[in-house]
């Protein structure tokens, strides 16, 4: 077998997953070894595990801004999103509404509902079109749930959930409001979002926690039917043996994220701006998809003319720069971005999409290296492409 | 060399990657995502991508998935559908090789700094004493795929590799089994990848074009019956043309989609002395004179004489042959039945 020397990694794919916080790894270790009891058991050994889950629940409630009894631990963010929407329709019937830029964990569920699903448009930055939303809500008497993401996973756009909620309460007072806040925890104070909604989804591995832990906040008690039926864990909201270690680590990571959020926002916005302006100084034809004031600090999404994302990502990967373009389908192939399409970005421009996302481990050196590697890679691709096919190149 | 190996998730391309690696090349495996719709027979279903990825992991090489769905739609699926509306029967696998594997993928490989693209086709690339490339039949005659890669020219052959072309299929499977590749006993794919085994061609085309019922007549124009969809009838077809059994065997000898007419006749009515080939490509420049000509993937190559006539090639059979359906690929081999000379599309 050939010797493979791995290049040093420059990790700029925090929206896909974040490195775990060291504190979170340490916190979960005892529950992977000596404290293995099932938290639902009735002996003192089980009670220790149960206490760890309940303390984690308190921490999550404090950071999110809700009562501990409103916190449901699930298996992932997708499960939380599915439970919110499918569970709402199962309990209440009617129609689910979401904008076209939602993560597939929401969008595909709503599309799967057929006539009971309704997709609304967005503006050129990917924010839900509030006029269209109001019109749809007025025209549809039996809307059960409206789901709008707080931060878009591809382009980083922030949506004002309070304003969305106001529209829903006015035009469809019977409807539940759910927000997929999976990409929000690192950047937005969740306490300001939670009071506006009935349901809110989180995913631990997006904020320095482990994979395999999600959270669904159900404000004011059960609002939707559970997805998973069984032993009645999580107050019968989500059956299945608790992932004690994961839940404990998730809470530690969320608490740290909350404490450092303000400083990290400042630090990473500067790095992000340096990254984008670095790319724009180095290369022609680099367009920032959403202006910085409309998105979270960790998101640098650009469209680069005259290249194809798939080819660029290969060269970045070869050089050890981890980035992404749109979301991958089941086969692992890059799909043309449904988010950029919904925002009205031309397909030919969207083909050159590059998503670099920063997080708690990102350094100035990462940004400098990314500018160098992306610059050199784009140069290589443009040099070899037919000159006629390149727009906006020097 | 730095080689991009197209890995479909089948055993041939798995072993191709293995052989390249053993030969000391720097290999990256690529699976092309070509078809977004339902498929259970082809080479880009999710489980096939999983198989390719796992084989790459076992070999310790990088594996990527490239999405060429747009190119596949434009150059393979749309022309396939369009051809049927004109009563033409194309070979989509050949168009995929022409427009996607050895064009789009090869260009991508070039862009990314690769020296060659390899596939698991059973064909061979040789060199003549004066340095010209030759395209030759695969060693395992039962698995030979030189017919479907006939469109490669000198420049393409210089940057293409067929690592398994010199192997017997049974040896190839044994090699895969010896290192426990999960594809070792996987059945060969047989069908067009975008057509499901359950729905078939009828369902695929029916979702995309309106079928028109057709009149079945004999060669004198006498009315014999009707078919539900003239778009699904192919020259040479014998079954499914709505005629009662018994009597002499009758074949479709012509399809006129403009008038929705299917003309049937005896085997003798189907025989032709000549066929005309359009869009001819040559491995190493035009060749006239004696050749062996093959008109289907596993058909026999039959003696004929080729002449260039304007933009097309006339193939004159030494013995009359059944008419070839328009749209089929026609591939010429040298008189020893070893080397591909070139190929094109039956008019």
Notes on the protein architecture:
- The complex is a heterodimer of chains A (394) and B (347).
- Chain A has 394 residues and is an alpha/beta fold.
- Chain A has two domains: 10-16 and 261-389, Aspartate Aminotransferase, domain 1 (Alpha-Beta Complex); 22-256, Aspartate Aminotransferase, domain 2 (3-Layer(aba) Sandwich).
- Chain A has helices at 22-32, 44-64, 77-92, 104-112, 130-139, 161-171, 190-193, 244-282, 309-318, 338-342, 347-350, 364-384; strands at 10-11, 71-74, 95-99, 117-120, 143-147, 176-180, 199-203, 214-218, 286-288, 299-304, 321-322, 353-357.
- In chain A, the strands form three sheets. In chain A, strands 2-8-7-6-5-3-4 form a seven-stranded mixed β-sheet, sandwiched between helices. In chain A, strands 9-10-12 form a three-stranded antiparallel β-sheet.
- Chain A is globular and about 65 Å long.
- The radius of gyration of chain B is 21 Å and the shape is globular.
- Classes of the chains: A alpha/beta (394), B alpha/beta (347).
- At the A-B interface, helix 9 and helix 12 of A face strand 2, helix 2, strand 3 and helix 4 of B.
Produce a short descriptive summary.
Chain A has 394 residues and is an alpha/beta fold. Chain A has helices at 22-32, 44-64, 77-92, 104-112, 130-139, 161-171, 190-193, 244-282, 309-318, 338-342, 347-350, 364-384, and strands at 10-11, 71-74, 95-99, 117-120, 143-147, 176-180, 199-203, 214-218, 286-288, 299-304, 321-322, 353-357. In chain A, the strands form 3 sheets. In chain A, strands 2-8-7-6-5-3-4 form a 7-stranded mixed β-sheet, sandwiched between helices. A 3-stranded antiparallel β-sheet of chain A has the order 9-10-12. A two-stranded parallel ribbon of chain A has the order 1-11.
């Amino acid at each position: 077998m050939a010797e493979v020397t791995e290049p040093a990694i420059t990790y700029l794919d925090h929206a896909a997953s974040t490195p775990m916080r060291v504190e979170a790894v340490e916190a979960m270790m005892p529950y992977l070894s000596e404290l293995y009891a099932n938290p639902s058991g009735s002996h003192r050994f089980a009670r220790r595990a149960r206490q760890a889950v309940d303390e984690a629940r308190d921490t999550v409630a404090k950071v999110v801004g809700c009562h501990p009894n409103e916190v449901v631990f699930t298996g992932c963010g997708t499960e939380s999103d599915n439970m919110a929407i499918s569970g709402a329709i199962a309990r209440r019937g009617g129609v689910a509404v979401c904008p076209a830029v939602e993560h597939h964990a929401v969008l595909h569920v709503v599309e799967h509902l057929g006539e009971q699903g309704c997709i609304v448009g967005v503006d050129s930055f990917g924010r839900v079109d509030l006029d269209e939303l109001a019109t749809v809500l007025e025209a549809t008497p039996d809307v059960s749930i409206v789901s709008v993401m707080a931060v878009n996973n591809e382009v980083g756009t922030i949506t004002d959930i309070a304003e969305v909620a106001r529209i829903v309460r006015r035009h469809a007072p019977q409807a539940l409001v759910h927000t997929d806040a999976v990409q929000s925890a690192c950047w937005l104070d969740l306490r300001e979002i939670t009071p506006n909604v009935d349901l809110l989804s989180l995913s631990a591995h997006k904020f320095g926690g482990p994979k395999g832990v999600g959270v669904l906040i159900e404000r004011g008690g059960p609002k939707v039917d559970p997805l998973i039926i069984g032993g009645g864990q999580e107050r019968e909201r989500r059956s299945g043996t608790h992932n004690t270690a994961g839940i404990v680590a998730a809470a530690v990571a969320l608490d740290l994220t909350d404490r450092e959020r303000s400083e990290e926002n400042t630090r990473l916005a500067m790095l992000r701006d340096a990254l984008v302006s670095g790319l724009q100084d180095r290369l022609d034809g680099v367009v920032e998809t959403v202006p910085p004031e409309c998105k979270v600090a960790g998101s640098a999404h650009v469209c680069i003319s005259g290249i194809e994302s798939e080819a660029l990502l290969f060269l970045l990967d070869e050089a050890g720069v981890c980035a992404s373009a749109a979301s991958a389908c089941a086969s692992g192939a890059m799909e043309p971005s449904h988010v950029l399409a919904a925002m009205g970005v031309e397909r030919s421009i969207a083909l050159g999409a590059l998503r670099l996302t920063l997080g708690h481990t990102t350094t100035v050196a990462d940004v400098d290296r990314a500018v160098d590697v992306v610059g050199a890679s784009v140069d290589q691709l443009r040099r070899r492409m037919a000159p006629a096919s390149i727009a906006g190149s020097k | 060399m730095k080689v991009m190996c197209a890995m479909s998730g089948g055993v041939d391309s798995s072993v191709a990657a293995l052989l390249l690696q053993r030969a000391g090349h720097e290999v990256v495996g690529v699976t092309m995502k070509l078809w977004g719709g339902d498929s259970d027979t082809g080479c880009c279903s999710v489980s096939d991508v999983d198989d390719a990825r796992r084989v790459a992991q076992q070999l310790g090489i990088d594996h990527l998935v490239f999405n060429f769905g747009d190119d596949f739609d434009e150059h393979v699926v749309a022309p396939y559908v369009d051809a049927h509306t004109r009563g033409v029967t194309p070979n989509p696998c050949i168009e995929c090789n022409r427009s996607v594997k050895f064009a789009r993928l090869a260009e991508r490989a070039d862009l990314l700094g690769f020296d060659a693209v390899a596939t698991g086709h059973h064909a061979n690339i040789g060199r003549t004493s004066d340095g010209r490339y030759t395209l030759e039949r695969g060693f395992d005659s039962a698995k030979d795929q030189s017919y479907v890669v006939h469109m490669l020219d000198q420049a393409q052959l210089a940057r293409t590799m067929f690592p398994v072309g010199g192997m017997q299929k049974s040896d190839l499977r044994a090699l895969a089994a010896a290192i426990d590749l999960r594809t070792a006993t996987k059945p060969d794919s047989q069908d067009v990848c975008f057509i499901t085994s359950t729905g078939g061609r009828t369902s695929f085309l029916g979702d995309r074009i309106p079928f028109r019922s057709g009149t079945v007549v004999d060669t004198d124009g006498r009315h014999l019956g009707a078919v539900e969809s003239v778009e699904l009838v192919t020259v040479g077809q014998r079954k499914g043309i709505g005629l009662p059994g018994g009597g002499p065997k009758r074949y479709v000898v012509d399809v006129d989609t403009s008038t929705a007419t299917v003309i049937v006749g005896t085997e003798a009515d189907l025989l032709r002395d000549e066929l005309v080939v359009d869009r001819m490509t040559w491995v190493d420049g035009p060749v006239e004179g004696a050749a062996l000509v093959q008109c289907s993937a596993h058909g026999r190559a039959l003696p004929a004489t080729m002449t260039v006539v304007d933009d097309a090639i006339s193939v004159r059979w030494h013995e009359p042959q059944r008419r070839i359906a328009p749209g089929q690929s026609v591939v010429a081999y040298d008189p020893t039945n070893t080397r591909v000379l070139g190929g094109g599309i039956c008019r």
